[in-house]
Specification:
The chain is built from seven helices and 21 strands. By secondary structure, it is of the alpha+beta class. 22% of the residues lie in helices and 31% in strands. Strand 15 (264-266) and strand 16 (273-275) form a beta hairpin. It has an eight-stranded antiparallel β-sheet with strand order 8-9-10-11-14-19-20-21, with helices on both faces.
Length: 380
């Protein structure tokens, strides 16, 4: 009798667990839930998913003077914002030096963390930047991307901020009229790369991509001058965007985005090759190559883009990419104006660029183990 009762109780508990899973209704965030005045938190971390599970709580944080707002998902419906919940001054983002150097191709920089630091002592990193103040350039950035399907059609891009790098000369060098003047000075009056002071042929290209971050406050955090480099318009809007979109459709991944070498263009009269720097004294270089190393589970993928939409690059023989087949789901536009992009052999890339891009140090052992397992299975 006792065993029968225990068996019935066990079956009942299993049924209740299954019923709870079936009946539970999660809450799906939409862009209507987004409000850039608040920082979205869950379990003492930034919100990384657009789904709040039934019974879980989303916390909206403003600053130390304003009480946080807790919203609970109740059977598919997220609690409404209280009528008296007001945030007029969101917690400011911090850019903090790690006092650790970083290097690539003769450029030395320093690592910086882009963080939210709360009055409770909680500190949350959004991404890390290797920045060279001597060259006024981003060498690379590192961040994590999480899959979500939250529309951002209502997101309005903020102004870029000087947070962490108060060099106004660098920020001014990205202005369209300044870029036009710089290209005329470097390449002569007959140059056609930048056609006027209203031609945005060179744009502020993100290293840590805003699209990889879920909420408006997190996306805003990527609009720093410390997180951008001079990028050809064709790259930014076309093939480089294809790489970003491919990453965005994947599950959780780690992304290292960087620059390599300096773009050279031909002078319109002398035909001499001229390195492109947006600032005097060889500062704020326009990179020759842009790259992304993407770590997905045990595998790493490398993508590079030639940062030139003219179709006539003067110098491209730095040989950082040994071409390989691209992973499923990504193809590139062969139009030169889209900027030539390639998928690269990971091991060759690490050898050419440096150990800082080696996100998969055990990849060789993993691939050998996979090959051994495949051979063993084929032999059965």
């Amino acid at each position: 009798m006792k065993n029968k009762i225990c068996s019935q109780l066990f079956r009942l508990s299993i049924w209740l667990i299954i019923a709870n899973e079936v009946l539970a209704e999660n809450c799906k965030l939409t862009d209507a839930n987004m409000d850039r005045k608040w920082i979205f938190l869950q379990d003492n971390d930034l919100l990384h998913s657009d789904t709040i599970k039934d019974g879980e709580t989303l916390t909206l944080y403003c600053n130390e003077r304003t009480n946080p707002v807790d919203l609970t998902c109740r059977h598919g419906t997220l609690d409404p914002m209280p009528g008296d919940a007001v945030c007029n001054d969101r917690l400011k983002l911090s850019v903090e030096p790690k006092f650790k150097s970083c290097h690539q191709l003769g450029i030395s920089g320093q690592l910086y963390d882009v963080v939210y630091r709360f009055s409770t002592g909680l500190s949350i990193d959004l991404y890390t930047i290797c920045y060279s103040t001597s060259s006024e350039t981003v060498v690379y950035s590192i961040h994590k991307s999480y899959y979500f399907d939250l529309p951002t059609k209502n997101y309005q891009r903020p102004q870029f901020k000087l947070t962490g790098n108060p060099n106004r000369a660098r920020s001014s060098s990205f202005d369209a009229d300044a870029i036009f003047a710089t290209f005329k000075r470097l390449l002569g009056d007959q140059q056609t790369y930048v056609k006027s002071d209203r031609d945005f042929a060179v744009q502020r290209g993100h290293m840590a991509n805003s699209q990889d971050f879920l909420t408006y406050d997190q996306m805003d955090a990527t609009f720093l001058y410390m997180n951008v480099v001079p990028m050809s318009r064709g790259c930014n809007l076309r093939n480089w965007k294809r790489i970003e979109n491919w990453i965005h459709r994947k599950s959780e991944s780690t992304i290292l985005t960087g620059t390599h070498d300096v773009l050279y263009l031909q002078h319109s009269q002398t035909q001499h090759l001229v390195p492109i720097y947006l600032m005097p004294q060889q500062k704020n270089p326009m990179p020759l190559w842009l790259y992304k190393v993407v770590k997905l589970q045990h595998l790493c993928y490398v993508f590079v883009t030639l940062n030139d939409h003219s179709g006539k690059p003067a110098v491209t023989d730095t040989n950082i990419c040994r071409h390989t087949s691209c992973p499923e789901g990504i193809t590139f536009d062969n139009d030169p104006e889209a900027c030539h992009s390639y998928c690269c052999d990971y091991f060759h890339f690490v050898e050419k660029v440096g150990q800082h891009v080696n996100l998969c140090p055990n990849l060789g052992e993993y691939l050998r183990a996979q090959m051994f397992f495949t051979v063993m299975m084929m032999g059965k």
